[in-house]
Design goal:
By secondary structure, the protein is α/β, with parallel strands linked by helices. The chain has a single domain (about 5-185), classed as Rossmann fold (3-Layer(aba) Sandwich), CATH 3.40.50.300. It has helices spanning about 15-25, 35-45, 50-65, 70-80, 115-125, 135-140, 150-155, 170-185; strands at about 5-10, 30-35, 85-90, 105-110, 160-165. A five-stranded parallel beta sheet has the order 2-3-1-4-5, with helices on both faces. The mean pLDDT is about 90.
């Protein structure tokens, strides 16, 4: 059986992580995350893992080592994986897809949700230091940062789109519909 590679793209707290966890739990998928490389580097350097530090490191790395640095690294990890079902979380820019889209069975899925819904999710998950204390206006300002402004154009080239304005059951049903379409290809 060939690998199935699903890559999720979406704005902050749109449901990428919830989708990944669902596929890991239900199908035993393995996952890779663009920001994991950056988080590991911040840990190694003893620097706090907050959104601003992740952005600073990402920008520095890409400016000094090429826009495709994270794409190369992640694609190599995917190619080396012996798992049949792989999830990639957090593509942000078209350059993130340069190598991934050349892999057989690669599918880009955009996940969309309204800003107020995403804000509430962001508060409750508190993924990065300081997320739970952010005001709605600060949350919206985060979308104007260098690592976030390219997400909509990346979402625009997705093969599938998920509307995640509902609950988890609605999200899971849409994922199952996509999997069904992929099985019938």
């Amino acid at each position: 059986m060939p690998k199935t590679i699903l890559c999720f793209v979406g704005l902050i707290a749109s449901g990428k992580d919830a989708s990944k966890k669902y596929l890991e739990e239900k199908y035993g998928a393995t996952s890779f995350r663009f920001s994991s490389i950056l988080r590991e580097a911040l840990d190694a350097l003893g620097i706090e893992k907050n959104r601003d530090n992740l952005i600073t490191l990402s920008t520095w790395a890409r400016q000094n080592f090429g826009e495709d640095l994270l794409a190369k690294t992640l694609t190599k990890k995917v190619e080396e994986s012996d798992k049949e079902f792989i999830i990639i979380d957090g593509a942000r820019r078209l350059s993130d897809l340069i190598y991934l889209k050349k892999l057989p069975c690669f599918h880009l899925i955009a996940i969309e949700a309204e800003p107020k819904i995403r804000y509430q999710r962001s508060l409750s998950r508190n993924e990065n230091v300081g997320d739970a204390e952010k005001s709605y206006d600060t949350f919206l300002l985060d979308h104007e940062k260098e690592t976030e402004i390219t997400i909509p154009e990346t979402m625009a080239v997705a093969e599938f789109k998920i509307d995640n304005n509902g609950g988890l059951e609605n999200l899971y049903n849409q994922i199952e519909e996509i999997l069904s379409k992929l099985k019938n290809e």
